[in-house]
Each structure stands twice: as structure tokens, then as C-alpha cells.
Amino acid sequence: MRIGIDARLTYYTAAGIGQYTMNLLRALADIDDEDDFLVFQSRKSNSPLVERSNFRCLGLWTPSHHRFEPYFLSLELLRYPLDLLHSPDFIPPFWGNFKSIITIHDLAFLIYPHFLTRESARYYGRIDQAVRRTDHIIAVSQSTRRDIINLLGVPGDKITVIYEAADSIYRPLDRAKALRFVCDRFGLPERFILFVSTIEPRKNVQGLLRAYRQFLDDYKLDVGLVLAGARGWLVEEVFRLVDELDLERACHFLGKVTREELLYLYNAARCLAHPAFYEGFGLTPLEAMACGTPVVVSNVSSLPEVVGDAGLLVDPEDEEQLIVALWRLVTDDDLWAELREKGLQRASTFSWEKTARHTLDVYRWVAGLAD
After folding, report:
1. Cβ distance 125 to 312 under 8 Å?
2. What whole-number distance in Å separates Cα of residue 183 and Cα of residue 189?
3. At 198, is the pLDDT very low, low, confident or very high (cuts 50, 70, 90)?
4. Beta strands in the chain (DSSP E)
5. Residue pLDDT, tens place only, 333-352
6. DSSP 3-state assignment of 255?
7. What does the alpha-carbon distance between residue 97 and residue 92 come to, in Å, rounded to a whole number?
């Protein structure tokens, strides 16, 4: 079988869908030496994403998220005979002589349209056309599958749920060494709560800041708040709130960090706070659990599905619940140790090898090579 994988987005971002694409490619390369893969990269990429004899990496001119992307991509792919094309960024070309599979990571842009820029709304507005044109859909959680069915009217048998996993780099380290590393690298306090994600409204950063201010006022604990992630949409409102709450000295905004730095941050943190309003999967809490760091997450969308009983779940609209959950993890060593062990066990049930094998099963079924 000749399989095409659209990996152009990896040139523009190493997070989110870009990270999903890279991890899937690596895992497929580890388990499949029989099928032929054409990996479509941005022509601006400096090196092949995968180096295997049955993986060809090809540069395309069409940029990701361009207004005319589905048309231009269709034309570029005409010269590459494929049995199947997988589009991890969910917008497939408008036509092609091959079977099509798309991955839908979440439908936040439909549930929270006011959290989008105008350009993002225009691009993601093509979702209706995408789900009609594609032959099959991979959803990264049961929660996302339900959203696809309920919001887009897609038949359930057109959707297969295949979970993501934490990158293998995320693992437990000696906490004392990890803490020394991040204190030296970033000038952080010895005890801190960690938030990891793009700073944008859907992640409920403002709710976290308000809860953290009240947490400091109520319990008088010397615990910092560290926020690691790129600045996104409406970030100015977040920094205005930091000033308003007088949190400039207590909050540490690190911006975008490397995977290695994030490994140490996860291991050094007392806990991860992830009170997002919506997540299609919830990779950040899974990464933290894989490092042995307890998590506080929202009790909405896919997060309970991913975390299970290995973390504390709170209503993202109820800041008092978040305050109490943070206090419990900061002060209760027995609870901290219990959730550390539960988190490690929970994270171990997810793997990219499993993701790749299930994805290959879908490829073969859609291509008519399996029952």
C-alpha cells in the first residue's frame, strides 16, 4: 500500500497537531517496513522528518492554513499516485484519486467560536466540507467523537477513536536534580504550580490566575505559579489581569520551552494545573502524569476520559474548587504520593506504538485490505 501523510504543519509548529504528526510518523516507522509512505513536508523544511527506506519525504509548495490550500494541495498531489492520504490537520484536498482519512483533534472552534481569530474561524469553517469529503475520520477521544456526531451529523461508523500518548521523553527524574535545573535555568522558586499550554482564552488562564490569587490570600503559602507556553490569542487580557491582581512577582511566564526543559519542569513542579474549558484529548496532563507529577484538571470534555481517577477534577467555572484542589496537592503529602503512583500507572496505558498500530488497522480497512 502507498500511504501519503500530510506533515506540512510540522514546519510551522512543533506543538499540538505538529507533535501528533511527528510522534505518529516515528511510531509508524518503527513498526511498518512493508508499506510505502510518502511524507509531504513543507518545501522550507531543512531535513527529512523520517529516515527509513520505505519513507520518502517530499517538499510541497502549498503552505498550511492558506486560503486556497485545498485547491493547491489537490493540484500538487496529482503527480503522486497514492492509495490513501492521511490528513492529521483535518482539512483534506478537495479532490484526488485516493482514499482519504482525516484526524479531528477537537471542535473547540465550533463550541467556543469567540475564542478564535477571524482567520482561524475562516480556516476551520471548512470542517463541514472536510467530514463529507473524507472516507473516514480518526477522533483522538470518545469526547471528540461525540462532538463530531452531535455537531456535524457524522454517522458513528465513520469515526474511529484512537488515543494519543505522551512522548517517550516524558518520564520520572530525580526531583531534586530537576528542581536545581529549573531554578538555575529560569530562576524559579523551590515550590511551584505548573501550567503548560498556549496562553489563550480556551485554556482558562484567567480563571487560574484568579484562583491562584485567592489561594495565596487564603492560605499564605509560599508557592509560585509557572506558566510555560507560547503567547496566543487575546494574551494581552491575561497580562492585564496579572497587573490587576498584583501577581507580577509570584507568576513566572517562561514562554515557549524546549521538550527537554519541559521534562525538567514537569518533574520539578509540585503539581500541574490544567483548568481548560475544553480539550479534544488533554496531552499536557498525560505528559505530567508520565513524569510522576499529580494533576488538577477540568471535569469537562476529554479530560476525565484521559486522567481517570489519577488526578483531581474540578469545574472550570468554579474557582473555589480549583483553589481547594491546589491546596490539597500542595499540603497533603499522602494524597500527592497516591496520585503520583496512579498517574504513572494511568500514563503507561497510553503509547504511540499502540496509536500507530490502530492507525495502520484503519488505513488497511479504509483501503479495502482488511475486514
Report:
1. no
2. 7
3. confident
4. 2-6, 36-42, 55-60, 84-87, 99-104, 136-139, 159-161, 192-196, 224-228, 251-255, 271-274, 295-298, 312-314
5. 999 999 999 999 999 999 99
6. strand
7. 13
